[in-house]
Predict the 3D structure of the following.
Amino acid sequence: MLVSYNWLQDYVDLDGITPEDLANKITNAGIEVEHLNYPGEGLKGIVVGKVESCTQHPEAEKLHLCQVNLGSETVQIVCGAPNVAAGQKVPVATVGARIAGNVKIKRAKLRGEVSNGMICSLDELGFDHNYVPKEYADGIYVFDDEVPVGADALPFLNLDDALLELDILVNSAHCMNMIGVAYEVSAILDRPLHLAKPHVEESDQEASEKIQVMIADPKKVPYYGARLLTGINVKPSPRWMQLRLIAAGVRPINNVVDSSNYVMLEYGQPLHTFDYDQFGSERVLVRAAGENEEITTLDGQRRKLTNEDLLITNGKQGVAVAGVMGGENTEVSAATKNVLLEAAVFDSISIRRTAARLQLRSDASSRYEKGIDRNRVVSAADRAAELLTQFADATVLRGIVDAGERTVPDCMITMPWQKINQVLGAQLTLEEITGTLKRLHFSVETEGDTMHVSVPARRFDVTIPEDLVEEVGRVFGYNHIKATLPEGTSAHAALTPYQKARRRVEALMEGTGLSQVYTYSLTTKESVASYAVRNQEAAPTQVIWPMSEEHAALRQSMIPQLINVVHYHLNRQMPNVKFYEIGKVFLPVAGAARPAEEEHLAGIITGKRSERTWEGEANDVDFFSVKGIVETLFDALGVSSQISYQPAKRSGMHPGQTADILRNGEVIGYVGALHPKVEKDNDLNKTFVFEVALDALIRHGELGITYQGLPRFPSTTRDIALVVKRATAASDLDRVIRKNGAPLLHSLRLFDVYEGSHVADDEKSLAFSLVYQDPERTLTDDEVNAVHEKIIKACADEFGAELRG
Amino acid sequence: MLKEKLLELRQQALSTIDSADELKALQEAHVRFLGKKGPITEILKGMGKLSKEERPDVGKLANEVRQLIAARIEEKKTDLEARLLDLKLESEKLDVTLPGRKTVPGSHHLLASIIREVEDLFIGLGFSIEEGPEVEQDYYNFEALNLPKDHPARDMQDSFYITDDILMRTHTSPVQARTLEKHKGVGPVKIICPGKVYRRDNDDATHSHQFMQIEGLYVDHKVRLSDLKGILTVFAKHMFGADREIRLRPSFFPFTEPSVEMDISCFRCGGHGCNVCKGTGWIEILGAGMVHPNVLRMSGFDPSEYTGFAFGMGPERIAMLKYGIEDIRHFYTDDIRFLKQFYRA
């Protein structure tokens, strides 16, 4: 909403209040002034000139030589505008003047003729071309009435104004019009409000003889009023009205359209004017549109309606989409003589739906959507009739023909007045509270501790006691409320075990050199299902109206996005990177619209383990680098003993370098190398990834800690090298050794794997270091030997393992 | 005769020891002069052949010579060892200005750091951390927050809907509604809710279709707007510096009444006006307000017994303000050169 500072002074005395002051005060009282513009800023030396004579330029067909009276002198100005003529009063940029764009006007010679200045178009004075009236769009501006020659032209063009652009939120719809803003400013400044009641001269002829009004559904159309105006002379509206419309961002059209727009800006009441002679009947029937009923709107578009839309009809066919746009068949034209003026109230939800569906958001529909003052509808019609009488020579037929309720009662709010202090934490007196409410032009009665507040319909946003708390708070000013700390129940708060464990996971990942990233949850439909830890049978979750193909469906794995991040770095000469992400993946559930959400941890590493240093070339990362990361994680979370790894074939992964990660037999993730084909498609070097369901891993928080005393007796270490078939999994040997070593085998570590000339082609040698310990005593050699032999035998039995000589 | 021999041996031994320049030579000298087959041992063995008069003198001299030689060897050995150590140390000399073998840790995402800082502050103030689903029911995302269907403040165009009833949450407020509901009408409820939210925006320097939010909620008997002001003052000073001041400006949110925006005095210029605060001296940080009675009622709390406040902030905005980051997309592009800068954040 653009508010003209000059216009506002019609209603509230702004003496001593600068536009900046006003903007700050309005902002601080709750309606943000987003911009404060001075449309005449930078303009200088623009005066009213009178074109005394206008002759053809001898050398140029399109130029005119004008003798222009500037009051103190008459000068020659060369003007190229097609509409310049002798006798006109025009804005003249004199020599030395500044016009829009900070252009300086100099004395010039045009095709040999001296030009002492420039006759200006509105564009040249900084007006937005979109709002310039058609009659001046291609030429200079011409004053239409008595303006003093030689005077500063800016005030006559409203270029001494300041424009406040208000950010209207849902609760400030009452400020979508000048009168509403005036009420607000009157309350903020605590200054009186001056509202003139419109005065309508009516003829003796009753409007009801010429028109009838019927409403089919009073719930959707609480009120419909019509006035008839005859003998209209369609022409441009007066300068002041045009300039106010332009300031508000509305392009002047003609006096009929302009008057109804002007009243909408002033009263907030959308009006519509029909050419009565084209109306086709003497009856207005407002009803729901039929399913697929069609109407051609003012913009020439054929619109198909539904039975949710409200349609203004002449009893037979549609003449306007209620509250949204008029019909082409009844449009006011230059030939219009008689006008049917509509002032109505329509259901805001219905208008909102229709405007949204037809994609026809207009000044009118947005006001209906956000709400209008129910009690201003009749006076708005009167105001329009008054303006059309004055500026379009209209004769107003007697009476408003209407249906529905013309007014609604005030909203009564009863509450203990102290509630305002209780909620705000303030110590206002009763007088301060009632005084503030009265500034808002609410009437207040008190009765002991209780206060009855009568809120007029123009403040339809105020309906409950809390609304009054806000009204008092914002007008009184929150800066007057002292900060306190809550006195209520003290609450103990801590991270949940899960949240604590998750922080630990973050620290661990970063400790192993991975940097945290956040990627988007919405990704392409194509990549969305790949790399899921568990393949989903149900179709991926998709959004109805994606903004782009890039963000159309919900990810089931973070790996595809992490691949993109690595790709991004490779393109920028950063081949050695390591990342992790913790975030939700969204697993579709058959028969349900909502996916199951799981928090996962995913990582990606590529390139060198570390940068090359002076000590020499660094090693490339490999499968065991990435596996080491997840193993470190499981150790730190104390779950390693529950974890196992199984060779796995997964889409997009290297078939020989991928392992599923199982916790107690359930697959909770995987780790491995990307498939070389994926690497090639994405221009990646050798790249390794993992993803683990974090919920499954730390569902119960971190495991508890059970303290064990330090060993008091020495341990015995024995190393063995076992030769087995190459296909034998190290983890199987590990399992058998541990099983047979219990309980004396304290720890076990694989320290060498050998394949080569010293063993057979299909064999390998695995060397383990075994530590035996008994917490209660020192083990003898015989005891250790017995267990050791048992282990070797078990390995021989299960895997055909032989001791390497 | 023997005396002269002893004196001569002493002379020989001392000069051999003095000229030894490695431990091996000393070893040899020891064997040669003091060994079991050495001359002094021989002399001592032959003592029996001497006269009674000669025996004490020669014996004494022989022992003196032996001790002297042994002492000198020991002395020389310490000396040589020290020199050898010096040589070894000299050979081990490093260029200590060469870089060490660093472990390069990864960095914590700046948004995660901001969220953690806010979490830790509010845990200290007695707020628990609640989380909730990112794919939400329309009811929790809108209706339970006093945004019925067709409310002008909600626009289908602004949300990623999955079905008519399911959408990507547009704020973390549904966690508030869910948590209130869980408490079945009994306070206090004191929570903050960090998380990802989604809006139908085109990504550009100032918009992101996915971003973070942290919301706070405190519902109890007699919670006041002045308490909100107090808590937010603590927050502003903690996050932006001890000399920050705050101001509350009226605003509108459907789920709070009254609603306010919180501004802080500019941390760059201290309130005099600069390009960070666009000359106003104040920076808009977050939205807040007193929980709307409809919200309390719908989640099972009696608004005549309970009041509460709520606030919501954007970690991206806080980060961008604090560090002068010019493009919100940096947070999701994850360029390592960006991420690493906030390693210590």
Notes: The first helix of chain B runs from residue 2 to 19. The longest strand of chain B covers residues 210-220.
